[in-house]
From TrEMBL:
One of its GO terms (molecular function) is molybdopterin cofactor binding. Residues 648-662 have a biased composition (Basic and acidic residues). It comes from Mycolicibacterium vanbaalenii. Belongs to the prokaryotic molybdopterin-containing oxidoreductase family. GO terms for cellular component: outer membrane-bounded periplasmic space. Residues 11-51 form the Molybdopterin oxidoreductase N-terminal domain. It comes from the Bacteria. This is Dimethyl sulfoxide/trimethylamine N-oxide reductase. Its cofactor is Mo-bis(molybdopterin guanine dinucleotide). The keyword Metal-binding applies.
């Protein structure tokens, strides 16, 4: 039994560290950790989250699967579940894994298991499932992320890294003290800096911007949303998806007004001349001038010309938010942003150059640790088959078909079993009607989650996990200076278990538990990981017990960094990991792939989903499916902070008053948002700070089909991924393109259907007794 006494304990989530009051097995209140001056509002989702009605209370198996066996997928997503014991679950799951491996091989298991899961180095669900599947003999895996699908491929090719663009980004302190002009493509959305992968103990961005402005620093924001920058800025609201055209126009002014730094381009870059032919229109007869760009982006040519001159005259950082690459041809924006910064010649100078993701995550601008972090070894995957992460529906729908990726010609494997722990494809993947059809293909879908997400409801075998609040762990994030002990706040809810315990039991059943557990309990693993890590450090840290008692350990950081300063100081001893060792404005490798959707230099390509294209005649509003301010993705959507943001129980959609008026829609109305892929309901919030013809509907409302048996059912709750196109950035990266989609909006006049997203499915005991 959980102690009824209130207790105060500190721990951490991806969105911040906190002290919680715990009573009767749940959190009753939270306060941010001392020293966090700008805590994330998402902390408000924690109270009540442990015993929330959407928790999975016991192992469960889909009735159709239990009765008819693997492959009987017709009712998947609409079926009842049967509660089973842990022993039965272990037996069933072990037998099914054995069957798939025996008849189809390990490559028939898809174990990419993309998703954020929770903070904590040991119980990190994706690390656990990968370690387990590697012990089993391997699995088809996924590469890159939904966050940075395009960046993860293009930037290593043109600047030799993508990780270091964030980890070793120019520090906020350097920006505060040296930068004069921050030109932000995609704004600097402080709502996003609440979050950091692995957790975070401080949020300095807001205060840094305040100090920056006090010193005279100016912010120019290109974004369809005014509030993507908090506080004073010059706001340009372009047609969404046209940033590359804008950057080209700025580059054009630099090139034609002798403002480009030719020395920098000659010393540190390769291929500028090839690019300049494109820029000036030497070969195609189309100069990428401000007048040319103005017709595409809807901004005034004179403003672009004036800004380019200002940028050349000031210490300037060009920063590109991650959202700009989560769209068709997403490779181009970060590549072109880098090219523009290179033309300014300030890369590697304090307060000048390039940034990627200020305002996308807490990490950019924070000093990196001078050391590594404790880490659970995942072993080796004997299977070499992989997919780019956002190709999951393509893979399930097109087994055996070839596809291009980053210069390779690959083939989709034939997947029989999908294994997910710590992620939610119904949150992260595009075109949910297509995803639901794709998930109808494999024989078996296994999901571990603490909550009945739509993905859990579409599984055959459902494994109830603990949350990070119900187990011991230690934190660790590469740009956060504090390692935190994460004590168990309360006992595991109902019949839930740590993923580690589930995999340990399965390993035992499958005969490799010694390899998986190495004979350690979870607590022994924490001690082991901590000790292994501390033995490799070149400074002293306390013994584990002392660290655990103290609850926090401050680690040394590398302060005052400027991105690529080393390279600027000495390009021969700090060669970039590109073929030329230099910044590749023209990449011979990419050019050699011959892709028609990604040339050898950055270029403007017309998007498919944009207001300037033919599709806009039918769907005249550009929907931005950005990150939610009130939560992390779909996590704790049932919590108070997330629920407070809803309108009539639906996810809020922001729109300009003129667009609402034209549709007879007012503040607080429920609307149907639709296109030819799907539809959802959402609750209207009017905001003149949204560009006309743009609407904004964040991701994260749990998918809630009006009729679960209909793959094309409308989502009554407001998940934008019923609308987004499941198409990749290009043949190069095949990244996620979910940030942008064209839609139409109309008043919803039918009776409002109830939101059932957070209700568990019907669960029966084997005797037929309905327990819901
Ligand atoms: N349209 C559109 N779609 C997008 C985006 C967009 O901009 N537009 N953004 C994309 C981006 S950048 C991302 S990163 C993805 C995010 O997509 P995901 O990372 O898949 O989303 P989350 O809701 O964080 O899913 C994590 C799941 O892990 C579960 N979990 C938490 N702790 C544990 C645990 O200990 N064990 C287990 N087994 N499970 C646990 C949570 O309950 C939750 O269901 O979404 C992408 N999707
Ligand atoms: N509160 C909160 N913070 C988060 C997350 C969360 O779920 N909740 N998720 C985290 C994760 S996993 C990631 S990857 C990052 C993602 O970081 P981003 O991808 O940068 O975040 P978004 O909120 O999708 O987009 C930021 C802003 O870019 C603007 N924008 C979109 N398209 C365009 C465009 O075409 N042109 C211009 N100029 N602007 C555009 C939008 O107005 C949007 O508000 O956020 C992280 N931070
Ligand atoms: Mo992300």
């Amino acid at each position: 039994m959980a102690p009824a006494e209130p207790r105060a304990l500190s721990s951490l989530t991806h969105w911040g560290a906190f002290t919680a009051t715990v009573e009767a097995g749940d959190i009753t209140s939270v306060s941010p950790l001392d020293g966090d001056t700008d805590p994330s509002p998402a902390l408000g989702n924690l109270p009540g989250s442990i015993r929330h009605r959407s928790r999975i209370t016991s192992p469960a198996v889909r009735r159709g699967w239990l009765e008819a066996g693997p492959g009987h997928t017709d009712r998947r997503g609409a079926d009842e579940f049967v509660a089973v014991s842990w022993d039965e679950l272990t037996e069933l799951l072990a037998a099914e894994l054995r069957r798939v491996v025996q008849y189809h091989g390990n490559g028939a298991i898809y174990g990419g298991s993309y998703g954020w899961a929770s903070a904590g180095r040991f119980h990190h669900a994706q690390s656990q499932v990968h370690r387990f599947l590697n012990c089993l003999g391997g699995h088809t895996f996924s590469r890159h992320s939904y966050s940075l699908g395009a960046t993860g491929v293009i930037m290593p090719r043109v600047v030799g890294t993508h990780d270091d663009l964030f980890k070793r980004s120019t520090a906020w302190d350097v920006i505060v003290n040296h930068t004069e002009l921050l030109v932000c493509f995609g704004g600097l959305a402080l709502k996003n800096t609440g979050v950091n992968h692995g957790g975070t103990t401080a949020h300095p961005a807001r205060e840094a911007l305040h100090r920056f402005r006090k010193r005279g620093g100016r912010v120019v924001s290109f974004s369809p949303l005014r509030d993507d920058v908090d506080g004073p800025c010059v706001w340009h609201a372009p047609v969404p998806g046209t940033d590359v055209a804008i950057m080209l126009a700025l580059a054009y002014v630099l090139a034609t007004e002798s403002l480009a730094d030719r020395d920098f381009l000659a010393t540190y870059c390769t291929g500028y001349e090839r690019f300049e032919r494109y820029l000036l229109g030497t070969d195609d007869g189309v100069p990428k001038s401000p007048r040319w760009a103005a017709r595409i982006c809807g901004l005034a040519a004179a403003d672009l010309t004036a800004l380019a001159r200002e940028m050349a005259a000031a210490r300037t950082i060009v920063t590109v938010s991650w959202s700009l690459q989560r769209t068709r041809h997403g490779e181009q924006a970060p590549w072109m942003g880098l090219t523009l910064a290179a033309m300014l010649g300030q890369i590697g100078l304090p307060g000048g150059g390039f940034g990627h993701g200020y305002g996308s995550m807490n990490e950019p601008g924070l000093p990196p640790l001078r050391c590594g972090l404790p880490r659970l070894p995942q072993g080796v995957n004997p299977v070499s088959t992989f997919i780019p992460v956002a190709a999951v529906s393509d893979m399930l729908l097109h087994p055996g078909e070839p596809f291009d990726y980053n210069g390779l010609r690959l083939r989709y494997p034939d997947i029989k079993l999908v294994y997910w722990a710590g992620g939610n494809p119904f949150h992260h993947h595009q075109n949910i009607p297509r995803l639901r059809r794709a998930l109808g293909r494999p024989d078996t879908v296994v999901v571990h989650d603490p909550y009945w997400t739509a993905m859990a409801k579409h599984a055959d075998i459902v494994v109830p996990s603990t949350t990070s609040l119900e187990r011991e762990d230690l934190s660790g994030s590469r740009n956060d200076p504090v390692l935190m002990a994460m004590p168990k706040l309360t006992e595991p809810y109902a019949d839930s278990r740590d993923d580690y315990q589930t995999f340990a039991a399965l390993s035992r059943r499958l005969g490799f538990d010694h390899q998986f557990t190495e004979g350690r309990t979870a607590r022994q693993w924490l001690v082991h990981l901590y000790e292994k890590w501390s033995a490799e450090l070149d400074f002293e840290v306390p013994e584990f017990d002392e660290f655990w008692r103290a609850g926090q350990l401050r680690l040394p950081t590398e302060d005052g960094l400027t991105l690529l300063a080393d390279f600027r100081a000495d390009p021969s001893s700090h060669r970039l990991a590109t073929p030329s060792g230099l910044i590749e404005i023209f990449s011979c490798a990419i050019d050699g792939f011959g892709y028609d959707d990604c040339a050898g230099h950055p270029a403007w390509y017309e998007p498919t989903e944009w207001l300037g294209g033919p599709r806009a005649a039918r769907y005249p509003l550009h929907l931005l499916a950005n990150q939610p301010a009130s939560r992390l993705h779909g996590q704790l959507d049932g919590g108070a902070a997330s629920q407070k943001s809803k309108v009539s129980g639906r996810e809020p959609i922001r729109m300009h008053p003129s667009d609402a008026r034209a549709r007879g829609v007012g503040n607080g109305d429920v609307v149907r948002v639709f296109n030819d892929r799907g539809a959802c309901l959402a609750g209207v919030v009017l905001d003149a700070g949204v560009r006309p013809a743009v609407v904004q509907l964040s991701t994260g409302a749990w998918f809630d089909p009006l009729d679960p048996a209909d793959p094309d059912a409308m989502c009554v709750h407001g998940n934008p991924n019923v609308l987004t196109d499941d198409v990749s950035t290009s043949s190069l990266a095949r990244g996620c393109t979910g940030a942008h989609v064209l839609v139409q909006v109309e008043r919803f006049t039918d009776a409002l259907p109830p939101v059932r997203a957070h209700e568990p499915p019907v669960i029966r005991r084997p005797l037929g007794q309905n327990v819901v």
